[in-house]
Write a structure and sequence with these properties.
Distance between the termini: 45 Å
Largest sheet: 2 strands, antiparallel
Strand order of the largest sheet: 1-4
Number of helices: 18
Structural class: mainly alpha
Order of helices and strands: HHHHHHHHEEHHHEHHHHEHHH
Number of strands: 4
Shape: globular
Oligomer: single chain
């Protein structure tokens, strides 16, 4: 009898879920770059001498113009192609479209929409060519994309310096270099032919009011999902509790004053949110599952009947088109752009930002992209004044953040190569055993 009771207890114990201990060492290693940036941002913020309200104002301005293009990197990463440094070519396609829109005199929101429409076939065609070429150099996609960006930049310079304004005449005022040929060094979007703030200026709200409005919409969404049994009650209550706590926190005057200078461009952030939903929804479709399968193992995906090369090309085409739209959002916020240099650092800065958020060259999420964009650009804001206060020269902070930008990418590539070597060693050891 006692043996039966003991065996029953043992059986129940074996069925009970085992609580796994958190591996803090592994957690730190996997998020070392993100933790390092958080620490650096806190230190630089403390020594910058800038008010929190000003920092938040600058940060939201940067987020509104940079978040979209960082999110454009997710699909190729999931598809196993690493960071798509060739998004600079998508930015070039957008700038070509902007040139023609200004030449035709289509201004404001219609001008931006026309530029976005023209960017689609251009960027998709460029993305198709990029994808075809990267399929010939599997395993070296990132360095290939980087070199492609430099090669395309040469063709872009030829197009804007010689063909436009010379072989193809431009009649819009201010588009051609005075006394010479070729497109002017700076294209101004604040003129009557431009579309400065075409998106940002549609609808803006103070941060506290915008947050309350967003929380109200999210609250209704959670309630609808709860009624439709699309979400568990515990999870729904957790989301509601978090939103309620944050809304109450914003009622504290000291907290509200931190965001007093922030005006949220609602339409721009709605567009960013739509892209997040697009990424999430796409990855749940059949095509998205193919992206994941190809990213995990091309050989297995091919054996399963997936056209690996076609899926990879589609991933690059989507990323290149999204990057072109991201560049349009960027230039309409800035109000002008350097014709021959605005696109050059797009790939490196976007790549560094997504890596800072904890993404890798094989895995990335919307949350990691947004977090990385916040940390990366926060450091851009506070590093120069911190360098000036600590060392008497703001250029030191500028050099430091540029060094960090390239260093993060280099570290990610080294870690990726190291993990690949470790996997090969483990596979060989398994075969020998």
């Amino acid at each position: 009898m006692r043996d039966n009771v003991n065996s029953g207890i043992d059986t129940a114990a074996s069925k009970a879920p085992v609580r796994q201990k958190t591996n803090w060492g592994r957690l730190f290693r996997e998020n070392a770059v993100t933790i390092m940036f958080v620490v650096m941002c806190i230190v630089c913020l403390a020594f910058s001498g800038q008010s929190l309200s000003y920092v938040m104002y600058e940060l939201f301005g940067r987020l509104s113009r940079n978040a979209f293009i960082v999110l454009a990197l997710i699909i190729p990463i999931v598809a196993g192609m690493g960071i798509n440094f060739a998004i600079t070519i998508g930015a070039m396609a957008a700038q070509i479209s902007v040139l023609w829109v200004i030449e035709w005199g289509v201004s404001g929101l219609p001008g931006m929409m026309l530029a976005a429409l023209m960017t689609v076939p251009l960027a998709a065609f460029f993305g198709f060519l990029i994808g075809k070429l990267l399929n010939k150099m599997k395993g070296q996609e990132m360095i290939g994309g980087l070199i492609l960006g430099y090669f395309a930049n040469g063709l872009y310079q030829l197009l804007f310096l010689f063909i436009f304004g010379n072989l193809i005449p431009l009649n819009a005022p201010g588009l051609v270099i005075k006394g010479s040929t070729g497109v002017a060094n700076t294209i101004d979007l604040s003129t009557e032919r431009g579309f400065k703030y075409a998106l940002d200026g549609l609808w803006s709200m103070p941060f506290v009011e915008a947050t309350h409005l967003i929380f109200a919409v999210l609250f209704l969404v959670v309630v609808v999902m709860l009624v439709a049994k699309k979400i568990k009650t515990e999870k729904a209550l957790t989301y509601m509790g978090i939103m309620g706590a944050f809304a109450m926190l914003l009622q504290i005057p000291a907290v509200a004053s931190v965001f007093s200078m922030v005006k949220v461009p609602m339409v721009t952030f709605i567009v960013v949110g739509v892209l997040c939903l697009f990424n999430t929804g796409l990855l749940r479709t059949r095509l998205g599952q193919q992206f994941r399968a190809v990213g995990q193992n091309r050989t297995v995906a091919n054996a399963s009947g997936i056209n690996v090369d076609k899926v990879r090309v589609i991933a690059i085409m989507i990323s290149t088109v999204l990057a072109g739209w991201g560049q349009l959002i960027f230039v309409q916020n800035m109000g002008s752009f350097q014709t021959y240099g605005a696109h050059e650092q797009v790939g490196l800065y976007a790549g560094a930002a997504i890596l800072v958020g904890g993404a890798g060259v094989r895995k990335a999420t919307n949350g990691q992209a947004i977090l990385g964009c916040i940390l990366f650009h926060l450091l851009f804001i506070v590093a120069p004044p911190a360098g000036k206060n600590l060392f008497g020269d703001s250029a030191i902070g500028e050099y430091f953040r540029v060094f960090i930008s390239y260093g993060v990418i280099a570290a990610a590539l080294v870690m990726h190569a190291w993990s690949g070597i470790q996997k090969k060693k483990s596979a060989k050891e398994a075969l020998t055993e």
